[in-house]
Amino acid sequence: MTYLTKTYRCLPLILALFLSSGGAFAQDVTADSIAAAVAEPAAEVPTTTVGAGEGDPALGAALWKENVCGSCHAGDMKANLTGPALGGVEERWAGEPREHLYEWVQQSQKLIGSGKSAQALAVWNAWKPTVMSNFTNLSNSDVEHLLAYIDGMYRGTYAKPGSTLNGPAVAAEVETDNTWLFIILGVSLLLLSLILARITSNLQYMVSATEGATPARRTLVQVLTSRGMIAFVIFVLVVLGGYTTVNHAIDLGRQQDYQPDQPIKFSHEVHAGIHKIECQYCHDGARRSKHSVIPAVNTCMNCHRAIQVGSQYGTAELTKIFASIGWDPSEGAYIQNYDQMTNDQARDIYQKWIANTFISEGGDPDDVDEVVEEQWDGIYAALTNEYTGDERIAGPIEWTRIHNLPDHAYFNHAQHVTVGKLKCQNCHGPVEEMEVVYQYSPLSMGWCINCHRETEVQFEDNDYYKSYERYHEEIKEGVRDGVTVEDVGGLNCQRCHY
Predict the structure, then answer these.
(1) Does residue 121 fall inside a structural domain?
(2) Tens of pLDDT along 189-223?
(3) pTM of the full structure
(4) Dihedral, CA atoms, 77, 78, 80, 82, nearest 10 degrees?
(5) CA-CA distance, 486 to 464, in Å (whole number)?
(6) 183 φ, ψ to 5°?
(7) Range with lowest mean pLDDT among 131-135, 278-282, 478-482
């Protein structure tokens, strides 16, 4: 038995050497790769001066968004808002040096005060006392990019921003999938275990034969069907089955990245991003109640009684709002007894509006019937529901809910927004950059608990936390830097599951 005992003692050493050699090889490769990456110099982004009329509309789109130009100027470049419509601006300034147009964008009041630009004085006389903001951060090349974007949007030759401002667009980092690596490692370890099992069986046979016994050599099939192997396989299946079951149970009801189509193509990127509309202007329940609430159409009409044609979809989407609440954009007034009208009567009103707007904006008269029918079909589909039997155009808009916590989990928006002074983006992500809203966070129990452990409560000037005198004293004495939600009971089960 001495030979067999020595062999068993050597097997762990052989296995360790095998695994360590593979690890050392991986480390060498990684070190070489890192060294090569560090040694390679970073590529420099060239900076060039852009000539008149040579701007890039994609860069202009980024500048437009970064400098919030849409807060004063219409995105379609055709309508007057706080500032004038920008479509055709280059033609209007064509009679003056190009530098005057640059100066107008960068420091309009300075150009007006100099008296050297007749066009600047004309615009000022037409729009005063409204003062255009200074944009001294913009270079002449930046202005050219903006002009290219404005012209593209005005003439319809540019559809949507597609590049970044500072140099070429950087490709998104691609996550590597190591599934095949793990499969190869697993198969290799399985083969290694079979080889070692075979070696052990042979050694046992040799030892038994040396001691004068008449052992029976076990075949591979006998090894694989032995009680020990069957017990091991059952154990592995139970572990894997339990792991899979628990993981799927945890994911039950979660819908991170859920991004459903809505009945109206409402762009948060346009409203919250470009126009900087405060989240709580529409979702005003977030500051005072458990629910943030979905705004009623009346809230939409505060702005869209004046803005009746969308910069991206024209009349196609905004007419859905008008048809829902009974606003006649042709007359600029609410329709009397609209809730008693039939769908056919409503159709006549809004098809007339769509057709007149299409023709007034230079649409082809031969296409007007097709456009009207297409938009009306969209209105009918958005405002009716065949599953619930709702065939009426008039009435509230049925938005598709995205964020939905389980009934046994209590969450109060006011507690987080008003008391905790959290921003909407803490949970909902960069909504101001979303064309179509999706669920940004997992909203799982573990995610909420981690937030409560890491988030510091804003004690200063917050009357809600005045009763925590000991914490206030410890902060004054320098004993603690801050107080987390966990410190004030944010991990108690009853906080969310009472």
Answers:
(1) yes
(2) 888 887 887 788 788 878 887 887 776 767 778 77
(3) 0.55
(4) -10
(5) 16
(6) -65, -45
(7) 131-135
At which residue do the structure tokens 């005057």 appear?
100
Q: What are phi and psi of 220, to 5 degrees?
A: -60, -35
**What one-letter code names the amino acid at 474?**
E
Q: In terms of Cα–Cα distance, which of 210, 228, 90 is closest to 150?
A: 90
Q: Are 334 and 393 in contact (CB under 8 A)?
A: no
Place of tokens 């002009």: 147
Is 434 part of any domain? no
> Does residue 239 share a domain with residue 150?
no
- Tokens 């370890």 locate to 189
Question: Within 10 A of 466 (CB to CB), how many other CB atoms are there?
Answer: 9
Alpha carbons 492 and 498: distance in angstroms, whole number: 10
Per-residue pLDDT band at 183 (split at 50, 70, 90): confident
Please determine, for residue 50, whether its predicted confidence score (pLDDT) is greater than 90. no
- Overall domain count for the chain: 3
For 199, the token pair is 């070696």
Q: Are 475 and 483 in contact (CB under 8 A)?
A: yes
Can you give the CATH number for the domain in which 151 is found?
1.10.760
Q: What angle do CA 84, 86, 89 make, to 5 degrees?
A: 115
